[in-house]
Amino acid sequence: MGSTSAEHEHENENENENGKHSTAGVGRRDLIKRSAALGLISVPTMSFLSACASSGGDSGSKAKAGKKTAKNPLGVNETAQMEFVLFDGGFGKEYAQDAVKIYEKDFPKAKVKFSATQKIQSTLQPRFNQGTPPDLIDNSGAEQMDMGVLVGKNQLTDLTPLLDAPSYDDPNKKVRDTLRPGIVEMGQFDGNPVWIMYYAYTVYGVWYSQKALDSLDAQYPKTWDEMLAVCEKAKKKGMAGWTYAGKYPYYIPFSLYPMIGKVGGREVLDAIDNLEPNAWKHPAVKACFDAYYELYKKGYILKGTPGLDHIQSQTAWAKGKALFIPNGSWVENESANVIPADFDLAVSAPTGIDSSDKMPFGTIWASGGEPFIVPAKAKNAEGGMEQLRIMLSEASSKNFTSKVKSLTAYNGGTTGISLTPGLKSGVAALKLAGANVLNPRLQDWYVQLQKEQIGVAGLGEMMAGRLTPAEAIKKIQGFADAAAKDTSIKHYKHQ
């Protein structure tokens, strides 16, 4: 994942969610992250932690502020150098280089020092310690710097001035008013400051072949009774209703969490994120756990699924062995080599229980990835923010989407672009959702809790039939309570 989140598992693992990509890159980064999450290897973070703990010396002087004008609302020094370090992943460098050219055109007397590396932490850690970091960093990849540490040690610039600046395209609109739902909140940890600008955007949900669904003479189910009926139709034709990444069952929440939010309201997910006592015992959680367990009980899960990894489950699904899979929008790119040309890939918001659900059908989980940061000790923080302002324009967003087949944080930028089936379906799903976009934060805030405990030890065991829903809920609530009492980890809450 290129961000702090598990989507982030892939969305930024290969950074090219929805288009052609290098599967080798995905696999390598996947392996590193998953191994780290499961405690199999040690990712080199401790040296960074200790480095950041020191305030470091300010060996470089800050650039003098420039004059604020309509064309220069952030007051960029027009002659100061701006340094930009990009993570060199599957999104490539071209989209960023194109945005740099715009910066250089706008500030012809300024020099931009641009570089790309896969070794973000080992390259930049010493510079943070010395007080000489770059002005803008794409903090992504296997060597991503720990965001919690950066925020906790006051190493980052608050990006609120960027968000409150006029958008690059329309002086009457603030940058924040042009962003997709959840982007601003994702950059917050405690309170109002926004420390991170997530640039890519992932849609989570239930992925399927529209061709396969049509072959069953069925519509995408909106209620759970309809879901069971569609799965029964599939079963009679020799196709399983569902599969998932059995070895990494923290994929299940990609559709389960927004279902819980749909059934019980977003406040249920907020309580879970906040580690509130008995949050997992809410009736909406029970209803959704019971529903998913029913898939197992009725034999609608592809045989052998608990033993499949993400690639194996996606391959089985792409080959028509299962109708539905919970996943994120990276799946189009990650499975491009096995998805048939006539598959007609589609994504939908999760099916609900019935008409008593608190939120309407279409309620979906979507959130940002690819985290960009401006260091607190940047010499030219205004320049770093201006570069982001340029990247959040319609033209730069379109350029990114057309080149790497992924959405950006900019709310639009797809008109006139030939979209791949999955991307087109994702855009339609977001349009249907409107304001009903959920953004659970467990996978950002408490990685071990989300992956190993809720995912593997809780949901994985339930979906394999080794725990009842009641037992799984009790177990997961115990994990959440332990995390809430753990003084060694920083706790966050929705504001």
Keywords:
globular; 495 residues; 2 domains; ten-stranded mixed beta sheet; alpha/beta; D-Maltodextrin-Binding Protein, domain 2; 41% helix; single chain; 20 helices
Overview of the structural elements:
The chain is α/β, with parallel strands linked by helices. The chain has 20 helices and 10 strands. Strands 1, 2, 3, 4, 5, 6, 7, 8, 9 and 10 form a 10-stranded mixed sheet that branches. α10 crosses α11, α10 (253-264) packs across α12 and α19 packs antiparallel against α20.
CATH superfamily assignment of the largest domain? Periplasmic binding protein-like II
Distance between the termini: 25 Å
CATH topology of the largest domain: D-Maltodextrin-Binding Protein, domain 2
The sequence of SSEs as H and E is HHEHEHEHHHEHHEHHHHEHEEHHEHEHHH
Report the count of strand segments: 10
How many structural domains does the protein architecture include? 2
Strand content: 5-15%
Rg, alpha carbons:
22 Å
Q: Give the integer mean of the pLDDT values.
A: 87
Structural class: alpha/beta
CATH class of the largest domain: Alpha Beta
> Tell me, what's the shape?
globular
Largest sheet: 10 strands, mixed
**Which spans of ≥5 residues are poorly predicted at pLDDT below 50?**
1-59
CATH architecture level-2 label of the largest domain? 3-Layer(aba) Sandwich
Helix content: 40-55%
Treating each run of at least 4 consecutive H or I residues as one helix, how many helices? 20
